[in-house]
């Protein structure tokens, strides 16, 4: 005890001496930060204006970069949700796809995609010189722009510019979400190489072309200015451009690739394949929810736009009520609060509010999220039981169905309090319930283009890829699990993975002619 007392006494003396020295010697410091300025007292009015302008640009750059960093973390959320909802024998395959699509998408968008989407957009007002550089747009007379052509390799057309690089970074992580969505719909039976090819297609052509029409100053954005349809197609943060496009790609992929072995019985009823790690999926959902605040609020592209607080709050309300309603719906209908559908309900609410989040009030956000929570539950059952599409994670219902719903919500619930000058049209964005039916017409046109371009082009792509390359693993690989054969590594090498007889050995399995497995009960 005496030794401990001596040590404590010594430490106390040292602490007191340190405090005394720091107080005396460091007295010349500036704890308030008041001296941290380059002001000399000789500044002109022009100097003050330049400093204020630079401060605003600085805030915008920091805002867009930090929110972009957080949107990138979407990748972690998607990876965990999809992997958790799949079976353990495909864990390494599924989670690595979610990393790979970013690697491929970033390069494809860098090489070609950004230029096609934003090469004629004029850039972002709060990020500097983009307007004088991103001015290359191919147009159809009488209709409007269809493609940009400046910014290939972030070099062509003088695009080596800090503001343009910031815009690229933010928009790239949005595009990557579209790349990720289809992987969930084809999980557990898709070739890894096919997803690599698809990700290049999405990032270089599929996503940028539609994105140009809505966000890049293209013809859908100018439907208001050229044809008097509200403010043209309005999609604040991507219910259409990001989520619906990814969802349409998911629908086409699920149709072409077909269901997992054993998913449907001979009588047409579906068999459940439980996800192997629901806690992982729930954590992934929480990550996505958190990142969605940046996804939506960051889309102001302007730290000085105080509407970002409304955007973030609307996002929270819609996502929360979406998950809650889905939980109670499943609880009431099936007797248990299904964890997976609670997750999908929250995600559905978030997808649905993404387009209208800046243009609606909290009450509208509540109803949008609540309806989305019910809609996703109904849609999942309809897609599986009526359309006979096998979507392991519910990507079609969450992103395609509720993405389209979100696009329409702009045309219904926008209250006119925000959006003055968007797409070159004066006044706030108003929907049908606030007196502007023409805005709903513009949004319906967007839905039509989503079907024609989003689904139609992606269906052709998947069919061609299946013919030329093949998009599905062999039946033997699917039954064994995609991890070792496709990836060369197990997701769980130290655990015994259950490879359920439901995959292959049930007499009531649906005959799948395209698999042509001989000598088994599946195709007996």
TrEMBL record:
GO MF term list: ammonium channel activity
GO biological process: ammonium homeostasis
PROSITE patterns: AMMONIUM_TRANSP
Keyword Nucleotide-binding: no
Record's GO cellular component terms: plasma membrane
Pfam families in the record: Ammonium_transp (PF00909)
InterPro entries: Ammonium/urea_transptr, Ammonium_transpt, Ammonium_transpt_CS, NH4_transpt_AmtB-like_dom
Predominant place of localization: membrane
UniProtKB keywords: Ammonia transport, Membrane, Signal, Transmembrane, Transmembrane helix, Transport
Membrane topology: Multi-pass membrane protein
Position of the signal peptide: 1-27
Transmembrane segments: 61-85, 97-118, 162-187, 194-216, 236-257, 278-295, 307-329, 366-383, 395-414, 440-462
Residues in Ammonium transporter AmtB-like domain copies: 62-492
Name of the protein described by the UniProt record: Ammonium transporter
Organism the protein comes from: Ruminiclostridium papyrosolvens DSM 2782
Lineage, broadest ranks: Bacteria, Bacillati, Bacillota, Clostridia, Eubacteriales
């Amino acid at each position: 005890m005496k030794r401990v007392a001596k040590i404590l006494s010594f430490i106390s003396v040292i602490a007191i001496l340190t405090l005394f020295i720091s107080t005396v010697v460091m007295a010349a410091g500036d704890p308030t930060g008041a001296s941290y300025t380059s002001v000399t007292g000789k500044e002109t009015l022009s100097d003050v204006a330049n400093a204020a302008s630079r401060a605003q640009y600085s805030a915008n750059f920091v805002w867009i970069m930090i929110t972009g960093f957080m949107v990138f973390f979407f990748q972690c959320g998607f990876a965990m949700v999809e992997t958790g909802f799949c079976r353990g024998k495909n864990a390494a395959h599924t989670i690595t796809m979610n990393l790979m699509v970013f690697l491929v998408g970033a390069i494809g968008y860098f090489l070609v995609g950004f230029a096609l989407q934003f090469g004629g957009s004029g850039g972002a007002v709060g990020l500097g010189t983009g307007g004088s550089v991103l001015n290359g747009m191919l147009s159809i007379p009488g209709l409007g722009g269809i493609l940009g052509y400046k910014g290939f390799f972030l070099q062509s057309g003088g695009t080596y510019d800090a503001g343009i690089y910031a815009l690229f970074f933010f928009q790239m992580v949005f595009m990557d979400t579209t790349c990720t969505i289809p992987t969930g719909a084809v999980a557990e039976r898709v070739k890894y190489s096919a997803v690599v090819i698809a990700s290049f297609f999405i990032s270089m052509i599929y996503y940028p072309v539609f994105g140009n029409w809505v966000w890049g100053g293209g013809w859908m954005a100018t439907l208001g200015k050229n044809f008097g349809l509200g403010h043209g197609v309005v999609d604040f943060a991507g219910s259409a451009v990001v989520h619906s496009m990814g969802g349409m790609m998911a629908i086409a992929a699920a149709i072409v690739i077909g269901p997992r072995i054993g998913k449907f019985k001979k009588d047409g009823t579906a068999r459940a394949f439980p996800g192997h790690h629901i806690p992982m999926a729930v954590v992934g959902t929480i990550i996505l929810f958190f990142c969605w605040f940046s996804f939506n609020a960051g889309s102001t592209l302007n730290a000085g736009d105080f509407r970002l607080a409304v955007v973030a709050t609307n996002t929270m309300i819609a996502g929360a009520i979406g998950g809650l309603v889905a939980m109670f719906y499943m609880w009431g209908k099936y007797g248990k609060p299904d964890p997976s559908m609670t997750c999908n309900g929250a995600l559905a609410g978030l997808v649905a509010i993404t387009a209208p989040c800046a243009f609606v009030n909290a009450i509208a956000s509540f109803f949008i999220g609540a309806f989305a929570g019910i809609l996703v539950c109904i849609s999942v059952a309809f897609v599986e039981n009526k359309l006979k599409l096998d979507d392991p994670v519910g990507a079609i219902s969450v992103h395609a169905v509720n993405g389209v719903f979100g696009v329409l919500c702009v045309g219904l619930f926008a209250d006119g309090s925000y959006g003055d000058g968007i797409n070159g049209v004066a006044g706030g964005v108003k929907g049908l319930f606030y007196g502007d039916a023409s805005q709903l017409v513009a949004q319906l046109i967007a839905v039509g283009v989503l079907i024609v371009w989003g689904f139609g082009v992606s269906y052709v792509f998947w069919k061609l890829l299946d013919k030329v390359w093949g998009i599905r693993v062999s039946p033997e690989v699917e039954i064994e699990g995609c991890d070792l054969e496709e990836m060369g590594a197990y997701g769980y090498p130290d655990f015994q993975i259950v490879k359920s007889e439901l995959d292959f050995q049930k007499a009531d399995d649906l005959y799948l002619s395209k698999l042509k497995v001989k000598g088994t009960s599946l195709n007996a």
